[in-house]
Amino acid sequence: MSNRLAHHLVGLGAGPGQRVAVLLPRSADSVVAILAVLKSGAAYLPIDPLHPDARIRFMLADAEPTVAVTTTELAGRLDGCDIHVVDFAELRQHNEQSASLPVPSADDVAYLIYTSGTTGRPKGVAVTHSNVVRLLETLDAELGLAGQVWTQCHSLAFDYSVWEIWGALLFGGRLVVVPEAVTRAPEELLALLVTEQVTVLSQTPSAFYALQSVDSLLPAAGRQLKVETVVFGGEALEPQRLQPWMDSHSDSPRLINMYGITETTVHASFREIGAEDAQGSDSPIGVPLAHLGFFVLDASLHPAPVGVVGELYVTGGGLACGYWRRGGLTASRFVACPFGGAGARMYRTGDLASWGSDGQLRYAGRADEQVKIRGYRIELGEIRSALAELDGVRQAEVIAREDHPGDKRLVGYVTGVVDAGVVRAALSARLPGYMVPAAIVVLDSLPLTVNGKLDKRALPAPDYAEGQRYRAPVSAVEEVLAGIYAQVLGLDRVGVDDSFFDLGGDSLAATRLINTINSDLDSDLAVRAVFEAPTVAELAMRVAESSGRRAPLVAQRRPDVIPLSYAQQRLWFLEQLQGPSSIYNMPAVYRVSGPLDTDALGLALSDVVERHESLRTLFRSVDGVPRQVVVRSEDVDFGWQVVDVCGASAAEVAEIIEGVAGHAFDLSCEIPLRAVLLRTGVDEFVLAAVVHHIAADGWSVAPLVADLQLAYAAR
């Protein structure tokens, strides 16, 4: 499919030195699209569908892409833009061509990602193929990337996705594209990590803190995780907040903090977080990656001594080309490196840092007006400029406040004859959601110091409900919800029309909100409900639906032949491609001590298999289409046998267990379950079982074991 699209793009003028815009929702199709753009030789320009129209139009006018790949539903966002639009779905009808595709050079631009700009204009960062390859080669040596299972949790317009996508695709891994709604619902993300057996998880610290909260509430799910590496990036990490995770996951996974910015190709540093970091108050970012170098310099570009804070400069093979068509800005940030050879450059990050005596770098904040909130790098100047352009605004200022530890929010201050609610609404039409201040404060004048400069410390704390007409709760549910909103957000009162996010809520606070609501109101809401129904009044209706409108489950007659789910189709296809394999096996081994009726246990296993049809299902091709065929319970064979190994060595016992765990299922003629009981001594046994992932997932193990215990007791 990517080859077909690449040929079509070349026919429309795409190639080396050109750009192709990709306006697609997060999906496998979006990954195919950027792969096709790169195969055409062009650079991809990712555009998030959540961006406001004004920002999309600016990016297209600035980057001048040759063509845009989108969907029928999103094509209207490009109306009025002078660009050829390609509907991704229509490309399936094109025949693949045999002609060779252009081969880009290592120094050609691979992607152009726009970040916030100080003057109100977003700036495009041009990153080359060699930049990305060097990053991944370096981290492969550090982490061993081959064959891992990755998630893509981030927008294509956020350069974190570069690491997620190509870390999987370039090293023979599997990429799980996580729907945006799931990334907003930590409990659903945790379930996905278990089901998909994810081994590499990349998260901003804010998102991981929310996931960690759910993990502590669902310890059984957490124990089923197969994650080997968690990579943090996008914003400053607070290691002390990871202590609960470390306590419940003491053996794994590795926790890696990687400082980085778009201009240095995603990641620039490496630091493995240990227990000692959780006891400190620093934000350690470690050492530069092998293809990069760090300098901590004072205002005169002299190296700062150990322990002294200076500005961080980055040099080496990860530096981007510069800012798209912004020569002056590029020259001011990508400067000559006085410590390197002729032509050596270094990037002035604007971040403050200091070297420790251990040779590790510690992050100390920002030197300029750039802040990071929930992983997004934001230039306060861009928001200030947008505020100043609004009708009625005379003066404008924007700051990042942290009135409660760990709860950083953008707050806008304006003077003039304006309404705070109208101002926020106007900004929402111009800026991405993460750049819209949580509150707007209207002042008679901005406070000044004795020197006539803005006195930021004198700016008042905002009332996050200001600018909205208060409407009191009417029903009992609204009253409870308003109280929970106020408790979670630290407010005195909340009206039924107040939006959780307008009041300063974020994804982490949304997790706390839903946990409290479900506990207090005996409801069953997911975190995504807050994003879909953010006001008290709207969420009250969701609570009513969750509590009283759930119809009882009624068993229906099952057809004899059943189609496969999407996940099952993928696993079936892989088996057809590779042949029977144990790679998707889910083994379980249990030690049993005490008197055991082995016959009753075998019958109990048969009872469990009879009850759960997925455990006695074959996956056969019917007229070339895969179908599920349920086997009658009396015809089931799951390899049950009791083996006496009392005289065997530990190595021999382990070999038998490994044989059970590594059984290569032929899904067309074998049910996806095997179980063997080993008698290792007097009243000592080991139960070894394995189930194929096509029939069960990580969440299934605990219920199946509980069913087996009940069935054995009944026998």
TrEMBL record:
GO CC terms: cytosol
Pfam families found in the cross-reference section: AMP-binding (PF00501), AMP-binding_C (PF13193), Condensation (PF00668), PP-binding (PF00550)
GO molecular function, one term: catalytic activity
Biological process annotations from GO: amino acid activation for nonribosomal peptide biosynthetic process; lipid biosynthetic process; monocarboxylic acid biosynthetic process; secondary metabolite biosynthetic process
SMART domains attached to this UniProt entry: PKS_PP
Cofactors that this protein relies on: pantetheine 4'-phosphate
PROSITE patterns xref list: AMP_BINDING, CARRIER, PHOSPHOPANTETHEINE
Domain Carrier: 472-547
Domain of life where this protein originates: Bacteria
Keywords tagged on the record: Phosphopantetheine, Phosphoprotein
Protein name: Syringomycin synthetase
